[in-house]
Amino acid sequence: MSRHLISIDDLDRAAIERVLDRAESFEEVSGREIKKVPALRGRTVVNLFYEASTRTSSSFELAAKRLSADVVSVRSTGSSIDKGESLKDTVQTLSAYDPAAIVIRSPHAGAAQLVAGWTIASVINAGDGKHEHPTQALLDVFTLRRRLGSLDGARIWIVGDVMHSRVARSDILAFRRMGARVTVCGPPTLIPRDIEALGCDAEATLNNLHEADVVYVLRMQHERMRDSFVPSLREYAARYQITSARLNPGQLLMHPGPVNRGVELSGDAIDSPQALIGEQVKAGVAVRMAVLYELLVGSPMLMAVA
Ligand code: NCD
């Protein structure tokens, strides 16, 4: 990687730490009454979202605005994408504005990489199908580092629909790179067979959940399921739903949102003080400011894996 952030694989541990340290300084900006710095004044950031998004799109928009960039946000509904314009043509059209960065979310794995080949802008992957979602992983690491001081030796369980989750892929890579031990857990139909190649363990039941310091719960990705992967949501919830009763008092609870309340997480767990879900959302702005800053103002080459 050089100018782009497509995958967590683009970052080594030092690069991740640099983004997190930068994000800490932007957190301070977010605490001010006037939450703006001039770093990207006069530069343009295009947000191109071909898939539903609340948190990621709003936080990228806020992040770019707090860096004083001009921001153009294009959603697939209501744009010419609706009229059948191809991704390549849309990117070329928007490139006429000479953006410094294009943030892209797409239902297709590999879309961000393709866009990087069609523009001179820096491309940031905001989620490509079930492939990767690197800024989510960075904000998750940021949130955990703030709580734990360091991820070294932390035991993190990722529970749920790992198969269809780009968050799981990026998180496994990032958590491992930061020294954590990762276990994925879910029904065997929702755990990819080669997942251990990413350096994590796999469990089919919650029996050993007590081992975890952090329980990271994933949403059931209905939109990516062509077949029935679980007999019923009720049965899934009975075996895998994370409830307050299933958590130990010291365990931290995370979820990337949006939550299917009552499916993968119970209402009492979501609302418990162990849940970091609100902190994750808040971290999203500072971390995305840091990513934009490092790519566009910092030394992008430094973000590269050696
Ligand atoms: C995730 C996504 O879109 O991949 N959400 C997010 O970005 N916060 C997770 C999900 O949709 O389940």
Brief characterization of the structure:
By secondary structure, the chain is α/β, with parallel strands linked by helices. It contains nine helices and nine strands. It has helices at residues 13-30, 55-66, 87-95, 111-116, 134-148, 166-177, 233-240, 267-270, 277-296; strands at residues 44-49, 70-75, 101-106, 122-128, 155-159, 181-185, 201-203, 214-217, 252-254.
Could you characterize the architecture of this molecule?
This protein is α/β, with parallel strands linked by helices and 306 residues long. Helix content is 34%, strand content 15%. It contains nine helices and nine strands. It has a five-stranded parallel beta sheet, covered by helices on one side. A four-stranded parallel beta sheet has the order 2-1-3-4. N-carbamoyl-L-aspartate is lined by residues 55-56, 127, 133, 136, 166-167, 219, 256-257.
Radius of gyration: 19 Å
Shape: globular
Order of helices and strands: HEHEHEHEHEHEEEHEHH
Which cofactor or ligand species appear?
N-carbamoyl-L-aspartate
* CATH architecture annotation of the largest domain: 3-Layer(aba) Sandwich
Helical fraction equals 25-40%
Total helical elements: 9
Strand line-up of the largest beta sheet: 7-6-5-8-9
* The CATH superfamily title of the largest domain: Aspartate/ornithine carbamoyltransferase
